[in-house]
Structures are given as structure tokens and as C-alpha cells.
Protein 1
Amino acid sequence: MNDSTLHPARRLADLETPALVLDQDRMQQNIARMRTSLARFNVAFRPHVKTSKSIQVARSTLGQVSGPITVSTLKEAEYFAANGFTDILYAVGIVPGKFDHVIRLRRQGVRLTLILDSLEMAQALCDKGRQENMCFDVMIEIDSDGHRSGVVPDSPELLEIGRCLATGGQHLAGVITHAGNSYNCRSIPAIRQMAQQERDAAVGCAERLRAAGIVCPAVSIGSTPTAMFADNLDGVSEVRAGVFVFGDLVMAGLGVCRQQDIALSVLTTVIGHQKEKGWIITDAGWMAMSRDRGTSRQPQDQGYGLVCDLGGELLPDLLMVDANQEHGVIAHRSGDPAQTPDLPIGAMLRILPNHACATGAQHARYHVVNRESSDILEVWERFRGW
């Protein structure tokens, strides 16, 4: 979006809009809450950095300069490795076209763990390992909820993949799953049940492999909802989660966080009105917010985002109801034009996003503030692309 580094601002009110704002206090509160939740269990934490794509946020999440992380692109792996992160899980199924990139990273000293879910890909990886005289660290992806990819837990292919890797000179590091269907739950008890289902599927697969004489050291699970509300992580080695660090309206709709916990927002300016329609027009459209409409599947649809004042306080029943590429439309939830406040042209607002990962991806940097101030403390760069 706009390059605010050309005109450094000291306060949010001095920024050209749209711009991405990160409330550091809320972020630290969210991190502390996840750490407290996981402290009940004997598990390692491997945060997913795809949400933030930021060195500073990753270090804040870990509470240290480096540590184990999860990435969703090899570019993320490369970027974080260049900044001292060497224990990296690439949590998207590997394909042959990425083998050489993986090998380059490993030869640079990165312990990069891969995932796969087919015998075909296990065989291809074994072939590549023999050609390059390399032993890859590999986890088998498990489908614990029918949400996405992965081996069905009772499938014969699980053992076939395990044997292929073991006899093919590769290191089977464990099994991995992601309970993405937790995003479709409608209550905290349903999330707890999903967390148990996630745990049972992954641990059960590890036990099947071990019973067949196939070494399976680790069990990796995780989504923000299940990580927050799991009651039982027996047999689990590590937990992964990402969006918790900022929170968003989808998470708030699930009860995973509150709207007032959301740390990320988009700063925008009122540029006009359609008073007869009850519309306030802003300069933040879907290019600033993303097209993600995740709350449309929840009991309360939040449009493209909820509206806050410049200080980050929610304005009751005001939401971004529509978006063009560079124009946002704000209106009262009721649709009654008389209920829309008369905000002057030039007024600055902050919009809370439906999906923090998608909104963050539209921007090149975070303007970091504290909860009680609109002073810009720091500007943190983030990166984009694949």
C-alpha cells in the first residue's frame, strides 16, 4: 500500500491511509493467554508465523530471539532462517518442484521439516534423497476432521508411507494434523470436542505406526481454537497456532477471543458520504482489508470489519458493509440511515479485520502503538509473496 517510510509519522493521525496498525499491548495479552493455556500440558509450542510474517512478532510470541516455528511458504522459511531461526516446520505438503529449494535451505544449516500425505510423494522424496545423499526430516499429515488434506487415520496408506520413508533412508519425524474445522464450530464445547478429536486422530496414528515397528517420535497438532480450549493433550509433542497472536472477528465469533482483544486494525479516512443511504465512504477497500468474509458463515455477520475510533475503541453497531477496490462503505448494522453517525470528511477510523492473516497480507508494515496512545512506537516490516 502507501509507503509511509518515505514520510515517517509520529502519530497515527499523521499517517497517509490506509495503513496497518498493531496494538502491542493487546498482542502481548493474547500471547500470554495462549502460553497460559498451553502451560497446563507437557508440550512444546511451535507458533505459526504465517499470520504475522514479522521477525519482531515472532520473537514476541516465543519470548526469545529464536526458537521453533511453523511456516506456510519456503519464502517464509528463507526469511526467518536469515534472521536466526533454524528449527522450521514447513506445514504445506511438499511437491517435487520445491525439492531443490528445500535442499538449499538445509545446506545452509536449517533444520527444515517437511510434510506429505501420499505414498507417491514419499517415494519421490526418497528418490531425491538418494540422488542428493540427503536424509530429509518428514512428518505424515493426518486428516483429523475432513477439512483439508491428510491421510485418513485408519487408511492402510499410513503404514505404507511410514515404511517407504523408513526403508528409503529418510527420517520419519512424526505425524502432524490441523483441525481446520474448528473454525466452523458454534460453541466452546464443540471446540473442546474438536480438540479431542484432533488429538485422538494424531496420537492414534502415531500409535499405529509404532505398533507396526515404525519409529514415530513426534505428534504435532494445532489450530488457534483447539490450542486454546484443549482439555487433553496426552501423547502430543507440540502444538502449533498462529492467528491467536492478533485475534480477529472470526476468532471473536467463535468465542476464542473478545472483539476488544483484537490487536490488528486498518487505519482509514472518511472521504465522503451517501447520506440518503446511510453510507460513510472511506479510503480502505478490499485492497486494504482483503476480500475475506469469514464471519458471513457465523451467527453474526460482521461485513468486512467492525469500526473503531482513532483510539481503537469500538463504535457501537458500525461496520464496513461493502468494499470496492479502494473504497470502503461503512453503515449502521440496522441499515437505518438515521442511525449512521455524522462523521466528517477527514475523520480517521480503525477497522477490525475478519481474518488477520488475510488483512495483514495486504500491507508491507505494522505501525505499532500501545492501547492507551496513538503515538507510533515503532514500524515493523513484514514480507509478502511466495
Protein 2
Amino acid sequence: MVTVDLSTIARLRAVQTRSISPENFDGSAGGGGRATEGTGAACARDLGPGWKISPSVDIAAGQTFDLANIAGPGRITHIWITTHKDNWRTLLLRAYWDGSDEPAIEVPYGDFFCSGWGEFAQVDSQVIAANPHGGFNSYWPMPFADGARLTVENLSTVSVRVYYQITYEIGGDYSGQGYLHAQWRRSNPLEYLKTHVLVDGVEGSGHYVGTYLAWGVNSNGWWGEGEIKFYLDGDEDYPTICGTGTEDYFGGAWNFDVPGKGYTAYSTPYLGMPQVIRPDGLYVSQQRFGMYRWHLPDPIHFAQRLRVDIQALGWRSGWRYLPLRDDIASTALFYLDRPTARRPRTPSADDLEIHLGSAPVPDLGAQPPRLPD
């Protein structure tokens, strides 16, 4: 479900809409449908130009492809993209703002669209919609002051076909708007008595707007007692915002367990657990979950610094908490007053691989040198 403020939809604005796709690579006015060659050329051989000659692109193994290069100020308003599900964790989606060499968004393709496990689940939220069968949509507003570049890197060993359309506006006033950042980290297994870090060392003024977790359970029993904590500005040892449990943060309660049905998937405009993957008695040996929480009516504001982490807790005997060593992959989204931020190192294909069990993955919370302000 995507909702809009209908009170403003009739307001006239002096802006222009543009759209980039394989049928109009630069989004130029009157530039669509002119292709004479492309992935659909053979299918249109009896029809000629204008008949779906270039609907998609093929990205070779190891290649980075520019989805969009936009000059000047503007705002991306919608992204639609699709590829086969085998590619959802082998593609890296990146966005660069205002000519920066460092990406503000660097997230596995599937995780950005709340589909981190390589299996489809319907997502009905205000900013992300995942529709059958792998039609991914983003409505996150992405303003920029002096140019935008969106890319996809193919980390697999085979060529990948991608269909996409990126819609944006130009000609408006985008001053005073933050840059969208998205960071991905994975702990597998999470170190004993350690928290999983979602964001660390971010400096500047902004607001935190969203969390997606692909959570794989590496033990029996309930896994969601851990608290999420937001360390704002001057917070050091103790956070300003402390949640009461994992299922509470994602808007559920009592283990997401509807009596007689067990774990129950749900998807709402601002929060949900759209994916519950159960063992199949053969190769799928553990439970896995996909959960999102969008802070749209309730963004978490910070003026100087931001750190976010989450605990993984279950139960042991005597009503004692049990620190867990689960597989947790997080996508954290926030708007910031600058186009770059401190971020984790770029994940490798092995870091992204979907595998069961507790094969160790390097700590993706490790930080590169701090970027200049």
C-alpha cells in the first residue's frame, strides 16, 4: 500500500518530470522509444522502431552498470526494477549524490527492497512495494542538489538481465532537504554478548527513517527479546531511545504468534514482517524472517551524531535471557545534511551469500577512514 497526502496532490508546481529506462537512457525530453537495437530487437523485427526494442539491459559478470546519471538539482520520486530472484543477493545497488566518489547508498539489491533472502514475499508499505513476482518499487524521496548517479554492480559469475525505470523531477527548489543514505551490515554469526550494529559513526544533522532486517535464527526457541537502541548526539554508554524487544519495534507482540497459526506474516504502510521462511525437512534447516520498520510519521532526529544497534536475545532456563549468535543482515536508512557519511566497507560476493548454518562472515561493521565533512 502506498499512501499520499491527497490535500497537496492538486497543487500545481513548476517542475518537469523525467524518466530513465533502457528506452531512454538519459531521460531526455522526447528521447523515449527511439532505440534501434536492444534486448527486444529480435522480438520487434516485424514492427520497427517504437515497439519495445530496448526494454532491459544485460550486465556482465563483474560489471558495474549506470542505471541513471542526472545533472543538476532534482529529486528521484520512484524506482521500478526487476530481475530474476537468483540475482537479488548478487547485485549491489549504489547511489551517489552531487558528484561524490563515495556512495550514500550501498545495499544488496534485494535487501533494499525488503527481500534479503532471495525468496519472494509481498511487501505492501508506503515506500517499498514488492509485487509478484519480483517487481520491486521504491518511493523513497531522493533529492539532490547537483547531480545523481545510480549504479548496479553484478558480483556474480554470470550475466544478469535487468529491467528498470527511474522517475524523477527537475526544476524545483530542493534546498534544505537531506540526502538519503542506506547502509548494509551483516553479522553471521553474531559474536557472543555483542550487539548487531546498524549505523555507527555518522556525523551531521539528519533523521533516521527506516530499518529492514533479514534475520536467520541459528538456534531453537524464541529469538526476539533483544532491544534496539538509538544513541543520539552526545550519547555514549547509554542511549536516548531504547526499545523493549525486537517484535515490539516492528509493531508485533507475543512472538508474532497467532494461536494455532504460529509465526504470522503481516505488511502495513509503516511496519511489517512480510516474510517467514520455515525449515523444509531437507536443505532449509533454519527459520528465517524479513522485517521492516519505517519511521515516516515518527522520524528519529539527531543534530550531531548517530549510532544504532540491536541485541539478539532468546530464553534459557530459569527465565534468564540467552544471548544468541544469529545471522542478522540490516539495511538502515537515514536522511543527512551531507551527501557522504561514514559507512562500512563494501561487502564481497561471499559476504552477501545466502547460506544456512553459522559459517563465519567477516565483521561488516568495520569502518573505513572517516570521510571529510
